[in-house]
Specification:
Largest sheet: 4 strands, antiparallel
Number of helices: 8
CATH class of the largest domain: Mainly Beta
Oligomer: single chain
CATH superfamily of the largest domain: YVTN repeat-like/Quinoprotein amine dehydrogenase
Number of domains: 2
Length: 479
């Protein structure tokens, strides 16, 4: 696997840049995107890149610089976050609402009012069961995603959120979650110059750290011994998570060091998978690659004139590079799953079908044999796959009739060929009864109709009903 650096700016001219982390060589420049903080997102398993820009949510394929899909949500969306499979995307709105979309279908599965002011940052807990949101109202709230789809539980509960941390006095600038599933810690930063450490299991504050300046970005050390805080004074402070208080420290209590390269304000931070390499973006338009052991900059990536608002790392298989793909056969299942551009994200919940049942979230094993493709799906996608399987069952019964009576005609034969063959049989003596010919014709007609006209329009007839209709038509048409 290789790691690719993606950085974005609020400047429309700079757009989104990408570089290979190991060599520092620039790969692709995605133009026409002015991206606010926390609104650049990668779905690597789907080879997609998302960003919020100018009241739109844009989709790119990672290997193409042109926008593939434009979505127009109901309001401007700021921060974006997704689950590790890239099956769902969650966005925070300017009104304080949170939106949850399914990528495969584009459906807006849920929306709820989370804060009194704009949502400024989002993250998921380690097990992805909890959503943590920060807002301009100074609150950090924790949401159980299962509860958000439990209508009965929501009615019985007083508040939708699980915890409400309201100790910050000014806008929350960033939130980061540690490891440990739902027992992990959460670190939040604010314009009140403090970072607070929260316990998700106990629902209380564990530690408050005051910094010399406003902190805009947080990255937790993978070992959770410390976290790195990017300040507006251009320094990256190192704050201890487990060490005892040291009142004599020159920076302040719990602050054990800093990284500095004479940059402007640090706006974003992210760790590499090696747990040592730290990337920082700053207002001077540069992305710096740090070795946290030596505390030195190992590489500088120049993004553009505007400030770098987001920096993320994407892990991609080495075989996915253009040179390797030219000599490698990609399985059809992977092509179908990863190279298919998803539909635009919908503006309203149930905007097309109005069926509340589609809001339920379930896990569905992928119908393909490639374990890379196993993802979570909503009941909407699951229902369509069930309909698809039902039609395949009807097709199999029809194909078996063909094999029995025609000898070897199967899936490889086209519908039109079979229909033409049935037409040619009229008036001719055949080795099998007219009843069987009519049964075959009825089967072809019903499978064709159910598969092509109604499968994505809300198929309500189960396969048993389809076969019953076939039998009824045969009896009507038979002499």
């Amino acid at each position: 696997m290789e790691e690719v650096v993606l950085a974005s700016s609020s400047s429309l001219d700079s757009g989104i840049g990408s570089w290979e982390l190991r060599s520092g060589s620039e790969r692709t420049r995605y133009r026409s995107s002015a991206t606010p903080p926390h609104s650049l997102l990668s779905l690597p398993r789907r080879s997609l890149l998302l960003s919020s820009s100018n009241n739109q949510i844009l989709f790119w394929s990672l290997d193409k610089p042109q926008v593939e899909v434009r979505s127009f949500p109901a309001e401007p969306i700021g921060p974006l976050v997704s689950d590790s499979d890239g099956a769902y995307v969650i966005g925070g709105g300017a009104s304080g609402s949170v939106y949850l979309w399914e990528v495969a279908s584009g459906k807006l599965l849920n929306k709820w009012h989370a804060h009194y002011r704009s949502v400024s940052c989002l993250t998921l807990s380690d097990d992805e069961s909890l959503l943590i949101s920060g807002s301009e109202d100074g609150c950090v709230r924790v949401w159980s995603l299962m509860m958000m789809f439990d209508d009965i539980g929501k009615e019985a509960g007083r508040n939708l959120y699980r915890y409400n941390f309201s100790e910050h006095t000014l806008r929350v600038t960033d939130v980061a979650s540690g490891h440990g599933l739902c027992n992990s810690i959460v670190v939040s930063s604010s314009e009140d110059r403090t970072c607070k450490v929260w316990s998700l299991s106990e629902g209380r504050s564990l530690r408050t750290i005051t910094f010399p300046c406003i902190i805009d970005a947080i990255a937790i050390d993978p070992g959770e011994h410390a976290f790195y805080a990017g300040g507006r004074d251009g320094k990256i402070y190192i704050a201890a998570l487990n060490a005892e208080c040291n009142p004599n420290n020159s920076y302040g209590e719990f602050i054990i060091g800093s990284l500095s390269d004479q940059s402007k304000a640090v706006t974003c931070l992210t760790f590499s998978v090696d747990g040592v390499t730290l990337l920082s973006g700053s207002e001077d338009g540069l992305v710096r690659v740090w070795d946290t052991k030596s505390q030195h900059v190992t590489r500088v990536l120049k993004h553009g004139k505007g400030p770098v608002n987001n920096v993320i790392l994407v892990r991609q298989p080495i075989r996915s590079t253009p040179q390797v793909l030219a000599n490698t056969q990609v399985p059809p299942s992977r092509k179908r799953m990863h190279l298919t551009v998803p539909p635009p994200l919908e503006k309203y919940v149930n905007s097309t079908d109005g069926e509340a049942g589609y809001k339920a979230v379930t896990m569905l094993q992928s119908p393909w044999d490639d374990p890379w493709n196993n993802i979570y799906c909503s009941s909407y996608v699951m229902s369509n796959q069930i309909k698809d399987l039902q039609c395949h069952v009807a097709w199999s019964i029809w194909a078996e009739q063909c094999r029995r009576h025609l000898g070897g005609v199967g899936r490889e034969r086209d519908f039109r060929e079979i229909l033409k063959w049935i037409g040619d049989c009229r008036g001719k003596e055949q080795s099998w009864a007219r009843h069987a010919r009519l049964r075959l014709a009825a089967s072809v007609w019903h499978v064709w109709r159910e598969r092509n006209r109604r499968i994505y329009e809300g198929l309500s007839t189960p396969v048993v009903g389809i076969l019953h209709n076939i039998e009824s038509d045969v009896l009507v048409l038979s002499p």
